[in-house]
Fold this sequence. Notes:
Blueprint: H1 8-31, H2 33-37, H3 46-61, H4 65-89, H5 92-105, H6 107-114
Helix pairs in contact: 1-3, 3-4, 4-5, 4-6
Amino acid sequence: MKTRGDYAFTFTMLGCLSVVAGIACILLSYANTKARQSGGHDVSSAAYFSIFFTPVGVGLVFLRRIAAVLLSFPLAVLALWMIVASLFTVPFPWWLANIAFGILLLFPSWATWRGWSELR
């Protein structure tokens, strides 16, 4: 039997991972400035991902419902798109990996659904 607080740790860990992803996007964007100025690849748009990931991660650490929805809904859409599209367009051995990754991306949505009562 599940008790109150079982999903709080899950949301806290998802929040920490989101904050780390936001920091990594900022560092990637900063580390690319010299390569971009010398004509290399421009990955400065990674900074836009940090604008999304960092506040959502902080919201998840503090167990906010809006942060859980902002993380789980886009990941669920991406997961369902990967699962359905890979069945029709990806060759056999690779669609298994796409389906497995799509199922993994559905985890935050499942945690949001099950732990909704623990969020504020």
